[in-house]
Amino acid sequence: MSGKFIVIEGLDGSGKGTQIERLAASLYDIGIAVHITNEPTDGYIGKYLRQMLKNSENKDMCLQGALFLADRLDHVTNPTNGIKSYLDKGITVICDRYYYSSFAYQGTAADMDWVMNMNLNAQSMLTPDLCIFFDVNPEECMDRIAKTRENPELYEKDIDITRKIRNNFHNVFARLQGENIKIIDANRDIATIAKETLDIVLEVLN
Ligand code: TYD
After folding, report:
1. Hey, which of 67, 105, 169 would you mutate to test ligand 1's pocket, going by the most ligand atoms within 8 Å of its Cβ?
2. Sign of CA dihedral 78, 106, 16, 144
3. Res 36: pLDDT
4. Which residues of 39-57 are buried (b: 16+ CB within 10 A; e: fewer)?
5. What is the Å distance from ligand 1's center to 27 Cα?
6. SS3 of residue 96 by DSSP
7. Residue nearest to atom 5 of ligand 1 (CA)
């Protein structure tokens, strides 16, 4: 039986990382082991992308969109450590960011339809069984980033871009009616969000 493919999305500073740790620990406690992974990946293209987000001369959005897609296709299909390889072994995968991030972030400057089409029409792309979006006010995200990051990356600096990215996420979710997408109000306390997240994930796993 194939494992389930679960994606976690949110703005920078939305608390994704904390919630993924809590979710994995809760699942482990009830005997469900998961593989946690993230995008950009730690592979060649992912590393190049991280460099690009930190300090690149070339900030072309189409180039970024194409590289994120290339990173994602390797992430999905890599025979040794790709997402499909885990799912085929019956292992559930939790992925921190996926194509929704490309639509929302690269869609701020590149044509969103182009970004969506090239991702969604790639034959080897996987559709997640579930996507959870941690929805936090852009102002709150910016406050948290200011407190925790010494050198903010490209998308972590500007409140107007952060607002635009959040709007893009919501527009994209409205367009992807056929997908299983759940939006969680993540302005609340960590424990409440963790409980709601676990309940949603268990519905998919059971
Ligand atoms: P992030 O999850 O914030 O990683 P970290 O906490 O390790 O910095 O992701 C890094 C950045 O990459 C984030 O600002 C969003 C951006 N990103 C895109 O612009 N497009 C994409 O397709 C993905 C996956 C991420």
Report:
1. 105
2. positive
3. 98
4. bbbebebbeebeebbeeee
5. 25
6. strand
7. 12
Give the chain's radius of gyration (CA, Å).
16
Quick: pLDDT tens for 128-173: 999 999 999 999 999 888 888 878 787 877 899 999 999 999 999 9
CA of 55 to the centre of ligand 1 (A): 14
Please tell me the pTM assigned to this model.
0.96
53 lines ligand 1 (CB under 6 A): yes
Count of CB atoms within 10 A of residue 136's CB? 24
Among 101, 133, 134, 148, residue to substitute to test ligand 1 (most atoms within 8 Å of Cβ):
101
Ligand 1 in contact with 102 (CB < 6 A)? Answer: yes
Closest CA to 189 of 148, 140, 138, 146: 140
In this structure, the residue with its CA closest to atom 21 of ligand 1 is: 102
Q: Rounded to the nearest whole angstrom, what is the distance from the C-alpha of residue 154 to the centroid of ligand 1?
A: 9
d(CA 74, CA 147): 34
Span 18-42, average pLDDT: 96
Percent residues over pLDDT 90 in the chain: 86
Per 3-state DSSP, what percentage of the chain is helix, strand, and coil (rounded to 5)? 55, 15, 30
User: Can you name the residues that pair with 36 across neighbouring β-strands?
Assistant: 94
Tokens coding 123: 């034959």
How far apart, in whole angstroms, are the C-alpha atoms of residue 135 and residue 186? 5
d(CA 98, CA 69): 9
